[in-house]
Amino acid sequence: MDFKNYIRDIDNFPSPGVGFKDITPLLQDKTAFQEAAKALLKMVDNQKIDKVVGMESRGFFYGPILASELKAGFVPVRKLGKLPAETVAQTYKLEYGTDTLEMHKDSVQKGDRILIHDDVLATGGTAAAVCQLVERLGGSIVQCNFLIELDFLKGIEKLNGYDVRSLLHY
Q: What ranges do the domains of the chain cover?
């Protein structure tokens, strides 16, 4: 299945000059949605995964599905102040400032085998921050898994040393 047929380009969103890859047509089509989940799962190559870590908010679409199929737990990573229990935080640079992500302090145990999942790998800042959080809690990152990778932004360079796999490349 050509999943690119289900990705819509939105110009000048969320700001002027940005070309946004909108995955909602993929999510809305029952066949494409299910086939993309299968393809993302296949990229994991039957590796043992204890937890899938998904980033707010679009990492929440496929992250729990992957966790369920892998018989793993799911760990949400959220923006600062959105999680109710004790958290660990990581601040990272954006092209226009900084942002902070958090996860619950008890969400990853030492030695947990982790699959990190998000919808898009762009500049790599978010994914690199999540890798730092997971490793700070003692988790071992098996793979970083993305629906889309925007190759021209070279985000993979911030994930040097990790196994990075993406279903679609632009």
A: 45-169
